[in-house]
Amino acid sequence: MSNSTGQGRYRYTLIIILAVMWVLVYLQRTNIGVLLVDQRFLEEMGLVGQAARQGMLMTVFLLLYSLSNMLSVPVSNRLGPRRALFLGVVVGALAMLAGGWVTSFAALILVRVILGLAHGIYHPNLSLLVKNWIPPQERGTANAVIGVGGCLALIVALPLYSWISGGLGWEYSFFIPGMLGLLAVIPLGLRWVSDQPDDNPYVSTQEAQYIVSYNRDDQKIENFTADNRGVRELLRNTPFWLLTVIYTAFLCSWWGLMTWMPQYLVQARNFDMSGMAGYISLAYAVAAIGILIGGRMVDRVKFRSIIGIVALISVALATMGIALVPSPIGAVVFMALAVGINEFVYPTVWAMMQIMLPAHLVVTGSGIASGLGNLLSAVSPFIMGWLIQVSGSYVGGLLFLVTIATLGAVCCILLYRQERQEASAR
User: Fold this and answer.
1) Has residue 4 got a pLDDT over 70?
2) Gap between the Cα atoms of 305 and 96, Å rounded
3) Residue 46's domain is classified under what CATH number?
4) Contact 249/342 with Cβ under 8 angstroms?
5) Residue 342 carries which DSSP code?
6) N or C: which end of the chain has fewer CB within 10 A?
7) CA angle 64, 69, 73 (to 5 degrees)
8) Are 104 and 45 in contact (CB under 8 A)?
9) CA–centroid distance for 196 within its chain
10) Range of the structural domain that residue 347 is part of
C-alpha cells in the first residue's frame, strides 16, 4: 500500500482484519472438494458414481450465493456494512454446524442453500468498506490483501479437511469450520470494523480526515438518494458490463478448478490423498502470491485492463496444459499456473469497479457484478461434471474452462480500447 503513513496506519489494520475474517468465512465453502473423494461421505449421501450430482453441491451453493449478492442489497443498504456482515457471518456458521447432522442428499442441499444465502451478503459489503476506507491509489493492493484470504483458506482447507475426514469423520468437516466462522463476529462486535473512518473509535482523527479527503467527491454524491435513474445509468454503463463478464470468466476457472482438481489428481493422475492435498495447497499458495502481485500491478499501471488481457490468455493456455500434458507432475505445474495467474484478475476487476462507481452505488454495482458473475459461473462445476460423466474423461471439462477464459480475454481487449479512447479524450 501507500507509504503515506504520517496520517496513520489503521486502514491497513482494518484490511488485514477483513482478510482474516474472509479466511474464516471462506473455509466454510471449501470442504466439498475433499468430501468428493471421501468414500463414506459419498456412500451415505448416495453420490457414488454420480458426478453431475456431486457438481450440484457446488452449483447450488453458487446459485443461491449469486442471488443473495443481488437480493440482499436492500438489507445491506438498510443495515450498513458492519451489521450486514454480522448477519451473514452468524447465519453461515449456524448452517455449517447443522451440516454435520445431515443424513440425506436433500438435507445437504438445504444446508448449501442457506450457506449460499449467508455468504452472498459478504462481498458487496467488503467492496463498500474498501471504497470507504481506502484511497483510490491503494485499492488494488487492498483488494488483493483481502482476496488472499480466500487463497489462504484453500491452502489450509485441503490438509485440514483431509485430516478431519480421515481422523474424525466427514461430519467434523462441517462442525469445525462452523465454530471457526463464529470467531469472525469478534471484530464486528468490538467495532474494530466500522462503516466509515469517522465512526471508528480506533482510527486517529488525522487519518480519518486523510481518507475522507480522497473520497470527498463520493461523499458529496452520497448526500443524494440512489434513485432508479442512478441504477439505470449503472445498467447502461458498458465498462461495468465488460467487468462483469471478465469477473465471470475468473470465477468459472476458480470454481471449476477448486471443485474438480482434487478428484482429477486422485482419479486421473493417480495421486494418493496426501499427495493430492499437498499439490492443491501448493497451487493455492501460488494463487496467494499471484493475487498480491496482481494487486500491486493494478496500483502502478495506467491501463488496468492490460493485466486482465495477459492473465486470462495465460489462464486459457495453462488450463489446456492441464488437460493435454502427459506427465502428472506437468499437470500439477500447469494447474498451479492456471490458479495463480487467474488471481491477477480479482484485484483488477474490483479496483476498477470501486474507482468507476460512486459510493452510493458500490453495494448495488458490486452486488450485481458479483451476483451475476457467480450466477453464470455457478453452472461451471455442473457442466464440467456433466462433460466428465458423458465423455468419461476430464479433458472436455477442462477445455470448457479454456473457452470461458478466452471469452474473458476478449472482453478485456474491448475494455482496453475503451480505456485508451477515454484517455485520448482527456
Assistant:
1) no
2) 38
3) 1.20.1250.20
4) no
5) H
6) C
7) 130
8) yes
9) 23
10) 5-425
DSSP codes, 10-64: HHHHHHHHHHHHHHHHHGGGSHHHHHTT-HHHHHHTT-TT-HHHHHHHHHHHHHH
Element (H, E) at 270: none
Q: What is the DSSP letter of 199?
A: G
* 299 Cβ contact list (under 8 Å, min separation 6): 137, 138, 139, 140, 141, 351
| 293: its cell numbers | 502481485
**Of 263, 307, 275, 271, residue with least CA distance to 398:** 263
Q: Is 327 exposed, middle or buried (0-12, 13-18, 19+ CB in 10 A)?
A: exposed
Asked if pLDDT for residue 224 goes beyond 70, the answer is: no
The single residue listed with the C-alpha cell 481422523 is 167
Separation of alpha carbons 223 and 270, rounded Å: 60
- CB atoms < 10 A from the CB of 201, how many? 8
What is the Cα–Cα distance from 271 to 279, expressed in whole angstroms? 10
Domain count for the chain, please give it. 1
285 vs 95, more confident: 95
3-state secondary structure 49-98: CCHHHHHHHHHHHHHHHHHHHHHCHHHHHHHCHHHHHHHHHHHHHHHHHH
The Cα–Cα gap between 54 and 33 comes to 10
pLDDT greater than 90 at residue 233: no
Give me the pLDDT at residue 219, please: 46
What the block records as the C-alpha cell of 299 is 496500483
Half-sphere CA count of 151, side-chain side, radius 13 A: 25
